[in-house]
Amino acid sequence: MNAPDRFELFMLQEGEKKITEKVVTGMSNASDFILLKEDHTLGNLLSAHLKQAPHVLMAGYKIAHPNVPEVLIRIQTDGTLTPREALVSVCKQLVAAYGHLGREFQKELALRQYADQGEHAAGGGGMGGQNGF
Amino acid sequence: MDFDPMVMDDAESLGPVVKISQADSVRTKFELSNVDISFANSLRRVMLAEIPTIAIDLVEIEENSTVLADEFIAHRLGLIPLNAEGVESLVNSRDCDCEGYCEHCSVRLTLHAKCTGDENMSVFARDLVPTGERLNQVLGTPIVTDSEGLGPLILKLRPGQEIKLECIAKKGIAKEHAKWAPSAAIGFEYDPHNKLHHTDLWYEQDPKAEWPPSEYAEWEEPPQEGEPFDYDAVPNRFYYNVETAGNLPPDAIVTEGIKVLQQKLAGLIHELTEGEGGDGANGDYNGPRSPEYNTGADGFGGYTTPFGNAGNQSAWGGAGGTTPYGTTPYGAGQSSWS
Ligand SMILES: [Zn+2]
User: Entry's InterPro entries (chain A) (predicted)?
Assistant: First the structure.
């Protein structure tokens, strides 16, 4: 009855921002980033890759409550770049890595299909006369 | 690692490596290596929960004299896999300008059956007929894969009983309801010999004798007798088994999953660099409300294209002009990477 709507897990409400930065007081070069309507998919991905990034001293994430779709990522850098710059560069690197993965997947798939040709009938209703049966 | 030298390709030899061991119309099995576990797991999670597909979301029942309650039937209808080809150009009904639903944000299906004979009659998914305007000829058509061409059983009618209803199918993701999940199941495993001790195998006498080896056990070196535990080891080969529910081809689930992740990350980059002048300055990103930002082709303005640099933009779109994935599994012909 008072259950929240399921779409509140992924749809930003009016006026909400996807990501906000809060500078951590009492820690040098440290910021918290609050991601709304996200979960472990991004939280774990980003914090794991921030840990491997240059100039990042510390990174971690938490989801304070399982029913609240908010991720907090804390980043501390050595001062050569800001936490925000570190996060942006990790995001860019990941976009490129997933892009690479997509291309590799397509290439492999085409190779696979080439190898399979003749072994299988064409899938998905394709008449595909080139298979010769 | 013993990967095929053919995939070792100029500058791209450092990134993720993919090896596909099976690809047909139901499943794609592949190994992903040279990545860390967070990267692999994010892809798995996104394929499970965040790829947009289409499913019945509203049912208006005009006549129901069956023994089943209206809401029971409505629930069954929701779970019927519908063809999601071209769903990316369907507007999210919550963002649509219309009131309720229209042909830009939904597909209408009708079902009308009456048992006039003297034997019980079965009503199948093939009896659900898409009506009215559609974005393309197949979007929203119930998936039928059995040899008789019937599709899933919806209900049964006794002589004289009748069912008449209209369904509205909308776009959605599995985070909202599992009926929008593109995959029936996603197998995901790593470290088949459990060298990393990420799992504890329960056993009576001997775990080796009692647990069947993984099908990937022979792909990796078994541990040596008395081998010391490697505290620095991390998993880096992951085995996926993506099985489709029928609405998207299995390879499209993978490529769409990658696209969704890229869009998420690009959205963050955009917000974080906003106001810096630089790259993110094209204004097509004013507070997105849906998971995918409904900006047609690549979703995110000007940053990177999802990986179809070679000219075949929409990930699982066919090379140049052919229908998106009708012919994907085999004989896609001239794939543009050459
Ligand atoms: Zn509409």
Answer: RBP11, RBP11-like, RBP11-like_dimer, RNA_pol_Rpb11_13-16kDa_CS, Rpo11-like
B192-236 pLDDT, tens per residue?
999 999 999 999 999 889 999 999 999 999 999 889 999 999 999
Q: Who's near A104: CB < 8 A, 6+ residues apart?
A: B7, B12, B15, B16, B17, B18
**Å from CA of B172 to ligand 1 middle:** 14
Query: Are A9 and B176 an interchain contact pair (Cβ–Cβ within 8 Å)?
Result: yes
Quick: pLDDT tens for A1-27: 888 899 999 999 999 999 999 999 999
Q: How far is A26 from chain B (nearest CA, A)?
A: 23
| ipTM value | 0.88
pLDDT at B333: 33
Q: Distance (Å) from the C-alpha of residue A85 to the closest C-alpha of chain B?
A: 9
B:47-66 residues touching chain A, CB 8 A cutoff: 49-50
User: Are A35 and B268 inside 8 Å of each other by CB?
Assistant: yes
* Residues 6 or more apart in contact with residue B141 via CB below 8 angstroms: B82, B83, B130
Say whether residue B175 is in contact with chain A using an 8 A CB cutoff.
yes
Does residue B288 belong to the interface with chain A, where contact is any CB pair within 8 Å?
A: yes
Are A53 and A75 contacting, i.e. CB atoms less than 8 angstroms apart?
Answer: no
β-bridge pairing B27-33 and A56-62: unpaired
CATH number attached to the domain at A16-119: 3.30.1360.10
Asked if B94 lies within 8 A of A7 by C-beta distance, the reply is: yes
Average pLDDT score over residue span B102-113: 96
Token pair belonging to B111: 């079902």
pLDDT, greater one: B315 or A62: A62
